[in-house]
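so i finally got all the pieces together for this one. its two components total, 1161 residues if u count the protein bits. some of the lines might not be protein, just check the labels. i wanna see the whole assembly predicted at once instead of chain by chain like last time, that was a mess tbh
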Amino acid sequence: MSRRAPCIVGVRHHSPACARLVAARVRALQPRYVLIEGPADFNPRLDELSLGHQLPVAIYSYLSGDGVQRGSWTPFAEHSPEWQALVLGRVQGAIVRFIDLPAWHDAMTDLPNRYADAPDAVHEARAQAYEAALAERLAIDGRDALWDHLFEQDGETDALAEHLRTHFEQLRGDDPGSAGNAARETQMAQWIAWAMARDDGEVLVVCGGYHAPALARLWREERVGEAEPISPAPPGDSLASRHGSFLVPYSFRRLDAFLGYASGMSSPLYYQWLWEEGCDAAGLRLLREIAGRLRRRGLAASTADLIAVHTHARGLAALRGHAEPLRADWLDAVAACLLKEAQDAALPWTYRGTIRAGTAPLLVEVMDVLAGDQRGRLAPDTPQPPLVASVEHELAAAGITLDGERDIDLLGAQGRCESRVLHRLRLLGIPGIERLQGPTLALAGERRERWRLARPVEQAAALIEAGAYGATLADAARAMLEAKLRDARSDITALAQGLNEAALAGLAAVSDALLADLRSAIAAAPRFEDVGQALAVLYPLYRHGAAVAVAGAPLLAVVIGAACDRALWLFEPTAAIAAAEVYPHLRAVAALRDLLRGHVADQQEGHAGLEIEVARALAVLARKAQDVTAAALSRGAALGALISLPQLAGATSAAVDTSAAMALLGTLAADALGDALSGLLALAREQIAEDPAFVRGVDALVVALDDDDFIHALPALRAALAWLPARERGQLARAVLRLHEAVHLPQSRLTAALPQDVPPQLIALAARRERELWAELQRWGVLPAAQEETA
Amino acid sequence: MAKKQPEPAASKLQRPPAEILYADELQRLGAADQDPRPPGWALSLKAARAFVLGDAALDVSRKIVAPVAAIERMLVTLATGRGLMLVGEPGTAKSLLSELLATAVSGMSTLTIQGGASITEDQIKYSWNYALLINEGPSPRALVPAPLYQGMRDGRIVRFEEITRAPLEVQDCLLGMLSDRVMAVPELASEHAMLYAREGFNIIATANTRDRGVNEMSAALKRRFDFETVFPILDYERELALVQQASAELLARSGIPRAVPEPVLELLVTTFRELRASGEGGRREGGMDRLNAVMSTAEAVNVAHAVGVRAWFLEQRGGSPADLVDCIAGTVVKDDADDRAKLRRYFEQKVAKKAGAHWRAYFEARHRLP
């Protein structure tokens, strides 16, 4: 082994400063070997990268087999250090190699993006603490601003290299790293050792800053032969699982950390400008593009405003010791000069992750401008992404041909399978796949679906584009679903709809980050009725969705748990219920009740997948039922829900049965009587409708109403009885007749439709007039007092 | 919220202004200040930043919990000659911030206009000594300068507190001063008829989002201000520490030997943060709604103070969770029925499921809610 050392450049992925450093190093060193952190299994096909693509593109590596679904992106933009190493290395005639483990290795399990910032959770915590301390010391807010401050200014490359080395050494410290990172570093060290052992030229290594200090130590310990290091084979039976790496078009939007994909630097378009034109020009470009966008959107951005932003940014740069304003300086200046309102949310560049609700529209636009909407395009003769073949394969396996209309029977296994494939394609927005008819809800009773299938020209292009989402139809559809759910944000109805689509397409898992987003979106849902409606769709899927393979899915469990929590919170406050809301409100209470009932039954059988606080729910219902200020409908519904949960009766303090219902009805004014009865019957029809005590009680209440009250109460009372099915209404009619000792009359006297659809109030009103008339006649002695009135 | 160490000179005053309280620090900063100062400024921007956010090397204390970037934006706004408007919920230390900024920039914070429904233009610009006016006619001697006049004449920062509480037409008298930097005094002749602002003059206005908001300000006036939203403290630990320290100081000043126990403060700060509906990092969590009442850190300090006072003077003991329930209900929720319902709902649904003896005691005391 010689005493020479390789030149190891630790970089932050997608950093233009690092890209510039790498470019300078390649030019200066004229290395014989350029070794890059990237999937080594792609080495035989490195030529594909230089076919003349329009960036950004990514290498998508996947593994799919029994129970394993893994996908990993290695994205490249023009300003990625890795890309500069690739391109310039080739130009210099160096031997260029990717030296990291392939994406199918266990080390990459939880790493959907090879070029993410944080290599593992432990290290993330450490890095955060270190950078926070450094930021505090330098009086800088935020890690991105800190990075820019330290490294992204125009400057001399040797000094930059030194600073980067120190920074990354501090970050890494003596952290041994996770097992996965250790495996990756061993593999990379082998490659370095191999190149050094050949001893025929300089060796340049481009890797993540985290790995650089470790690699500088490790490579000397590796013993290698003449041949290139071998990448480990994919796990398991390689025949049963499919794996590989393909080039797919990528987009700046996906590179942007703001959209929730684990990625490095945010605002990729800005950094592209920084790479192309340097700090000064990038700043002016930023100002120009932002002004253009704001004006197109009709947001204020006058010339005076722009002058103010420009001055402000320069002032901030001077204060912060930057020769030219950096990204945070520009953005801070925009915030200071253009915002004219109090803000509800923190400024988006001060945190990581998706933009929070309540951010000013102006700032959302600004961040969007900086993210850019550039999409990569692959050169025409690039091998097609695996999705294209996967779709063909799945269509053939399901026996689907894309010509003409197709009827599918959803009850059969084969039909379900076909339907699932088509729904996944539909989710991906592939042209030529159109559903003409079929159930809206995944668990609806409808058992037929009708599709119109074709192969329009755009279909192939759409499939290649969708290839960026995943290698198999299931993976791609899942990724697309995640994007959709993210877009739904706080709209819980859209969310339920999205999850329903997921059930139709048989997709039941999403990423943890998305789950957290969903949870916080549901926590902000404003209306009880909407949350209840969502529960009514989602809980049946969770409990009975075996046919669509989503029963018990953790995704649903999380969403249902959060929705139940929110529904209980929203149900409690006193609120009047508009006429149009009555049905949704009762449905929502019923959904909540069904959830409780199902959950308790599951618990008794020893299944517990949901986090539902039963005691709290019962307490909320009990409080609602007793709340004299609440709407009668809600009170009736809450009490009905309790009555319909006899299995939980022991858990509540007060007795809940028919007598409680009668007690409630007895305290209400005439016009609220029908509403409360609606609530009771909607929720607890089975328990109370046939209870003689209930029939007797309600009858007594109605009889006790005077004429005016009766007319007031009538519409709501009729609406309440509409909750009874026809047969039970008949039984009720018989019971009422018995009660009034009028068994000689047929029950149809009470249940028959009213003649000519006369509104019942009119009949009641007429009856009252008639009685008044008779009374008047009697008073004047026109009729004998004994005359019986006819009602 | 400031970490105030009463100093000998200031100890007799009930609340000494920042320039007296921190005279030493200002002096040290000024002496060590090597950087260029904007025209008319007492300190450079860097020294001003150090004055507000602290500098260990010069033994300058941190006076407020706020993001560095926000303070930098404010200073640059002032240095570029635009008016600075601090907006935010009541109790987010906007006034303290404006006091500190004015002190850092001009060396004094007392040119203050307090906005209010009854404020008139002569309280802002100038009025007359009527005895002299009648005797001599209008003359510079008879003119009684108000804060804005003084600020322009001497090149200093003028603070306009609660600007949105002032009537619109009174607010608009600032327009000319902010854009042309000149105040016309039509009563006086020749060189006194126009007061041109000297370098260093600027305005820091504050407005809270609960009063008539900034929406009602005229667009022309809004344009002349840079807006900066002051947020409640985002970091739990920091807020807890601040409440602990500030309430201990208040209690000591009230002559009470016992601080509020830490578990009670934890209950208090957690309750406030949850009812503010801001989870870690400002995310909304937990499915709760915002209260109408102001749930600021300052209000939390007041509640902590009230808890300590109540427990000590009524029963000579430290504060308990039950005291906290009483005090939150009384000082925060006041008479808003909607908030009362929300608070009760918070106890029944959220407090009920928290673990820990102090949370238990807190929950048990919920019947004390109004």
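The beta strands of chain A are 7-11, 33-39, 57-65, 68-76, 95-100, 203-208, 242-249, 404-409, 433-437, 448-453.
The radius of gyration of chain A is 35 Å.
anyway lmk what u think
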